[in-house]
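Section 5: illustrative case.
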């Protein structure tokens, strides 16, 4: 009887640079260190490496970390993640790699997926990985990044950008969103949502959501749109008009729309579409319902409408998405392009 060999976990290598932020370094380990397949096997292996031989790496805090792998670990990576650093030197100031960093990045295999958190984007940019591509970083550094690398299309307003094999995110918590997005892209919403629950974070914030909202905490004396959002989530299968949501909060449509953007960062219409796409994804993964029935239950009305929205949001048809993710074995490959933020 042939022996069944377990699939090799997807290897994520995190590049730890001097001046790194410990919180952001820990994000990939927390998110990618949790997902398991139906048999309980880890779907990812996470390794941290330095640009130097094994040894200490300074952080922006009052402690250093001991890294056990040198730059050669990058040659084994399926995905390379570069977290933020406050000591990038000429990379940040002049847009050029140090010889040490250039030698380290040369280990990366063609075809490896690349990702950055916050100012880690400067490393990818200086190495030429972002030439002609869209990218983002922390809003406070976006203008500087654009000046330094005019060949990059910098979007300062989004949480993350997925350009297929290269992904970039804004700062701190947006790194969590990016890593969850990659898990969702690789293995579907059920696996990503389980990781989010275990991490006690929201399961999904779309990459196109604004990263900086001028007034993130509403004035306690003013009404919010929370009740309207909860009401809408319970009725996604029904037609929902903007005036219906505004009436739930006793606001005019104009006031409600402005308040909604202040609190959520996107328009009510965009938010409703995102929620319906997520509902459709969940049903495609977890149920045997027909595409027509899922389209009705998710609020798209017709299969054609749902197909158009999923194609725009995920880059795949409902049938292709279901074929990829509706399986007990979650190790199947994902579509080549999903959730792209353009």
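Designed sequence:
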């Amino acid at each position: 009887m042939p022996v069944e060999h377990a699939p090799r976990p997807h290897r994520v290598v995190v590049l730890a640079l001097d001046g790194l932020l410990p919180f952001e370094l820990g994000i990939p380990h927390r998110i990618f260190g949790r997902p398991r397949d139906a048999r309980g096997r880890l779907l990812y292996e996470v390794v941290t490496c330095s640009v130097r031989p094994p040894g200490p790496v300074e952080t922006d805090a009052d402690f250093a970390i001991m890294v056990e792998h040198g730059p050669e670990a990058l040659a084994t990576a399926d995905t390379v993640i570069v977290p933020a650093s406050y000591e990038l030197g000429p990379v940040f100031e002049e847009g050029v790699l140090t010889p040490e960093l250039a030698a380290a990045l040369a280990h990366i295999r063609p075809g490896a997926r690349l990702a950055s958190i916050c100012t880690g984007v400067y490393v990818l940019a200086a190495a030429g990985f972002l030439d002609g591509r869209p990218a983002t970083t922390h809003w406070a550094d976006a203008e500087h990044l654009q000046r330094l690398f005019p060949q990059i299309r910098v979007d300062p307003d989004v949480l993350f950008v997925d350009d297929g094999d290269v992904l970039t995110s804004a700062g701190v918590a947006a790194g969590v969103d990016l890593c969850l997005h990659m898990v969702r892209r690789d293995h579907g919403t059920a696996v990503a949502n389980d990781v989010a629950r275990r991490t006690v974070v929201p399961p999904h914030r779309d990459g196109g959501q604004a990263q900086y909202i001028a007034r993130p905490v509403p004035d306690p004396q003013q009404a919010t749109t929370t009740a309207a959002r909860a009401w809408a989530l319970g009725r996604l299968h029904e037609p929902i008009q903007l005036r219906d949501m505004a009436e739930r909060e006793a606001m005019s449509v104009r006031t409600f729309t402005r308040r909604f953007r202040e609190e959520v960062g996107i328009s009510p219409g965009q938010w409703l579409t995102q929620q319906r796409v997520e509902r459709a994804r969940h049903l495609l993964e977890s149920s045997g319902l027909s595409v027509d029935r899922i389209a009705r239950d998710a609020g798209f009305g017709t299969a054609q409408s749902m197909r158009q929205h999923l194609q725009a949001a995920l880059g795949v048809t409902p049938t292709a998405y279901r074929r990829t993710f509706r399986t007990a074995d979650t190790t199947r490959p994902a579509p080549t392009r999903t959730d792209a933020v353009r």
